[in-house]
Amino acid sequence: MRKLAPYFRFLVILWVVVTVVFVSLRLTPGDPALLLLGPTAGRQDTAERLADIRERYGLNRPIIIQYGIYLSDIVTADLGKSNRSERRVSELVKTAAPVTISLILLSMLLAIPISIYLGLTAAQKRERPYDRSVRTLATLAMATPSFWVGLLLVNFFSIRLGLLPPSGYIKLFVDPIGYFSHMMLPVVTLALYLIGTLTRFVYTETADTLEQDYIRVSRAMGISSKRILFQFVARNSLTPMIIIVGVEVGTLIGGAVIVEEVFGLPGLGRLLLNAVLGRDYPVVQGTVLSITVVVILLNILAEFVYKLLNPRSKI
Amino acid sequence: MTIKLMKLPIIIFSTLGLLTLISAIFPQFLTPYHPDEIDVTALLQKPSWSHPFGCDELGTDVLARIIYGTRLELMVCLGSVALASIFGIPCGLVAGYFGGKIDWILTVIADSILSFPIILFAVLIVASLGASVLTLVGVLAFAFIPRIFRLIRGQTQIISSLGYVRSAEAMGVKTVKILFLHILPNTIGPLMVIVPQLMAIAVLIEAGLSFIGLGIQPPQISWGSLLLVSKNYYVAAPWYPLAVGGVTTLAAAVLVFSGDLAGAAVNPLRRLK
Amino acid sequence: MFIDKIKSFLLTGTVAASLTIAPISAIADTQTITVGLSGDIDNFDPATNQLISFQAAFATTIFDSLVGYDSQLNIVPRLAKSYNISSDARIFKFDLVDGASFHDGSPVNANAVISSLKRSAELGGVFGGPLQSVEKFEAPTNNTVKLTLKSSYAPFLTALTNVAIIAPSSFENAVSAPVGSGPFLFESWTPNDSIILSRNDKYWGEKPAFSRLIFKPIPDPQVAMTNLYAGAIDIVAEPSTAVIAQVDTSKAQVIRPSGSNSIVYIEMMGTKGTLANVHLRRALAHGFDRETIKSVAYGGQGQSEASPLPTSSFVYTELGGYPYNLEKAREEFELSGAPEGIEIGLEVLAGFPEAEQMGRVWQASLSKIGIKLNVVVSELSVWLDRYVSRNYDMTWNFFGVSPDPHSFFDVILRPHLSGEYQNQKVIDLVKEGIETSDNMKRKQIYAELQEIMVKDLPVMAVQSRPIASIANKSINGLELNPLGWPLYAQSSKSN
Fold it and tell me: What's the gap in Å between the CA of A76 and the closest CA on chain C?
């Protein structure tokens, strides 16, 4: 029973999220049928068609029944069909997911090594100009609106230098070079925020570890400071980073919404944004559900790995 | 020596804070221009001594608009954090102090909200209710509640295991009194660290939502709505979006730094958290 | 696994190196034209998708109609090689072109055309609505379509330009897989990424000079322009007014139509009834600084006239209207008896910076006579909700008026006539307008209607929207009609 508790928790969290999404969509203005018809929906000769649309997508049923259908669809892993394009939601998510996953994965691959290096070295040179500038830059990187950075990067690298494509997406297996050149600017934009956060985190952890007795002892024993830093300290201060990276996945997905918009990437963020704006309920629900499941699973995974590396921890 | 070094940033930050406050309450003291004044002869005028950040697409002084925009910006930041505290602090105290079932339920709810990226949630709500200061405050507060809740819960757990709380309990002091008189004051320090950070997040999210067209909409002036408009001119008048974006970045960075400072004051060893 | 990661890192490195040698250049391929659209399109059924951008992109590419427009909005034959209209505008006969076929290979014959028209009539809306007045659909021969209307309907031919003919086999799946008979056929749609069309090599008319037409949704106008300058796209189809004014003409060309039939309106009569008093509406009109708004919000472009119809319309009447005059505005305001400091809301759709600039200018003027204008900008679904229920004080809107003046009265004015704007005279005149086929008589009718519109101000015309497409210099022969539809099929691309 105790072993099952985390899974139960996971299910409850999912249920809360699913319900919040459903309720916030239904209780707010914006009639999807009206949007399908456009500005002439108020005319008398279209009233009948409005009723047809509501019937077709089950929008005329009582909310509680819609909720029941929605829950049972989720249980049977059926995400339904888009109200607008009539495509299967699972298909839409499947097409869009690789874009967002690439974006986040590449940003992490870029940001993690850089942050570790900057964080460790800055902590070692505490209160010196190097340390101060690294920390200031990290904070600025965190505090810059990402779309603003994105536009600046596009302006410089795509327009002035003509080096990189300003937007669009090419599949990795179709044209690997095209894929990387299209991903470069979005990844840098998103990674910048991550570098800021992670550098600050690594710095704090390392600064703490460096104050520990065993490090002082090692230093007194004459072990080279480089070795101390990259062997002892790094190991100790980097394991908590796993948890932070897990948590940041959520933030990165949020950031991806904006970065995808700037760079015209057909990922989950834009899928969701357009679905929300068009009141395409099934697509909104399906996308949010998929994202949440992934975020929660990654967090569980991060905790699991952390426990594996750090068996005595209480987290 | 460290004390001297610490003082300088405090002076800088309090000056900036004061300026922000004046901008929000008495903007007319800081600029001779009115933010709605239209001057057809000064459309997208370059920065000059009389218009340090230039003029916008209607010939209005950009600096004046930034200054007048502070009010909504501050309302969003302070409003969301205050609202989140009203709900987050009591829940955190209760969950941390009593533990058990109520703790489990509150934590699960908090985790559910946390597992939901703020921007996604904001998109969902703002798109349906329309962008206004009120919706933004509500959405951000909703997203901040679990963050404040978790902090207070953790602190409460630590503090309530301490001797003096135990003895107060033993002496029969009312639980409410223990929570608000003995435990709450001891959570203020960590709270001061997280609050500026949440405010920085609020500034950034407001800007991001504006970019995708879901932020506070012009002609209401907030930094996000200014960014949204100014980015249309980043070829013809690059200094315009640069000025607005620069001020936004600076504000968010200063907020994060002041969180760091508060952190250092609470725990001198840790300069960052 | 780990090695893969390292490899991908290395790849990124080599990409960067190779890029510095060969910068991303314009798509050298002259067979593909790529167009940036301001939004994605998810419904490809021409009978139900009434978005302007959908029509502009596909009405002349995937689809054909019986009759269409040339670049001057003259009605020209398309699937109907000739037509015959009875003098009372009740019987319309069309002879179909020979050898036309749908993209699925089936022939475009009288039966197919009739079933497609009937489907549009059933689905109604702006496009199919006029077809509901057809009493009899007949096919005297395999290549002739004869439509008999219940009563005379002068604007019928113009209405048919909006009705795309689609293959009967595609009725069920038109939303996702449209089958028309136009010069391009629908190949694929990847949401938020691209819509790909390819040349219809069996097209009955003149075949396009290029083989692929790709549409890419790029919502941000600045991002669209950077794509154009970088050569990643060839055409920006619907640039905003601010963007048109900023084009670097050494890098790109601005293509404008001969005129603009797209008119911006302020609809002043919502169910809230705030502006029920005509004097208050006139006060607002006198406080509307047309000159400043034109120069500030519309970059000095477009025609700012009192009439709600475009100057190119054959019935257009020049009217004095309400010149900007705060004295007169104050007088009208006092006549209206509305309280000093009254607050009036103006609903504006997000994504149109010029509309909200117009709001700012108007706000500044009105504040001088004691009226507080609240400009509310909302995104489409929220705006549309209020628009359709007319739950507003006043709302901004724009509409592409077809060459027949009736379209304005049918689409923009009609909802008000059945609600807050009670005027039997107008209802009668509108009816007379569609039942009269003599153009001289129609001129008189619509002159009177325009006068009443300006006098009563249920809807105030702002001005014509400057419309244009922006194209790279390698694009030749692209034209826009005054509704803003780029005529892609006739263009070509050089190196």
Answer: 25
